[in-house]
Amino acid sequence: MAKLTIGDKAHRVLRFLMGVRNRRASRVLERHGFDQEELERGWTLLRNLSSGRLGSQASVLDPALIGALDVWENRWFPIADASLTARAPAARELVFRNLTRTEGPAVVISVGTFLERLEALPRAAADGGLGEEGESARELLARRGLTEDVVAEARRLLDKVGRIEPTEEPEPEDQEAHEAAERELWTWYLEWSAIARVAISDRRMLRSLGFLRYKSQASDADEPDDPEPEDPATEDVVEPSTDEPAPAPN
């Protein structure tokens, strides 16, 4: 079985952060020390995991904006992937490294990362780009319809969710820092997810936090699968339950 990627972990943490905004869930966890400071710490750790700084708060994650970003991602990710794979494989590797289509609030991270990498393509190799090859890749994508206006549309949506603040100078890749950020985020999640699974008994609430899954197949096709608890500590990739949408922000 495949291990959880950084994206998988970020998606689980994001789902937990959205779910725990439910007052009923937070009230239970308050008995164990979960407060506004802990919630903000979780968001900070999640933002630290991405290359851009998403200056958003949970309260501004409008479902309509998330839906619009999801539509944009579902249209342009496959087009860019197919074109770059066929004609500019090096650019494809730079843009789509550990990046796949997502759903729900996680689309904020995936689209933001995609746009940052597009912007990096024409830069010199020393600055994380591909130089002339990257410029050609951008021109190719523009011919496929991913023009500056289309990119600007996605940026406007992201600006409404939370501003992406570009650094003045590209920062070099720091693998140790990335790994440390991942460890710190996952340690935070494992602690609070373990507490939540013990403290919260409401199955609907647990599902909104991402702690229930369904067996891949039922013994009888006419009967629903039996829900099973999802162990957040496992490194196996587990598809989140899709029987209910993630809770909308309050």
Task: Explain what you see.
With 250 residues, this protein is mainly α. The chain folds into 2 domains: 1-52 and 177-250, no CATH class; 61-165. The protein has 10 helices and 2 strands; from the N terminus they run ααααααααααββ. It has helices at 6-19, 23-30, 36-49, 63-87, 89-96, 107-120, 132-143, 148-161, 175-199, 203-208; strands spanning 212-214, 227-229. It has a two-stranded antiparallel ribbon. Helix 1 packs across helix 9 (175-199) and helix 4 (63-87) crosses helix 6. The longest helix has 25 residues, at 63-87. It is elongated, with a radius of gyration of 19 Å.
How do the helices and strands line up, and which of them pair or pack?
Blueprint: H1 6-19, H2 23-30, H3 36-49, H4 63-87, H5 89-96, H6 107-120, H7 132-143, H8 148-161, H9 175-199, H10 203-208, E1 212-214, E2 227-229
Antiparallel strand pairs: 1-2
Helix pairs in contact: 1-3, 1-9, 3-9, 4-5, 4-6, 4-8, 6-8
Based on the model shown, name its key terms.
about 250 residues, mainly alpha, 2 strands, about 0% strand
Which structural class do you get from the secondary structure elements?
mainly alpha
Helicity, as a percent range: 55-70%
Spatial arrangement of strands, main beta sheet: 1-2
Assembly of the depicted chains: single chain
The N- to C-terminal Cα distance equals: 37 Å
Global outline? elongated
- Biggest β-sheet, characterized? 2 strands, antiparallel
Q: H/E element string?
A: HHHHHHHHHHEE
- Specify the number of helices: 10
Spans of at least 5 consecutive residues with low confidence: 51-60, 162-170, 214-229, 233-250
Mean pLDDT: 76
What is the β-strand count?
A: 2
Q: Which percent range describes the beta-strand content?
A: under 5%
**What is the C-alpha radius of gyration, as a whole number of Å?**
19 Å
Number of domains: 2
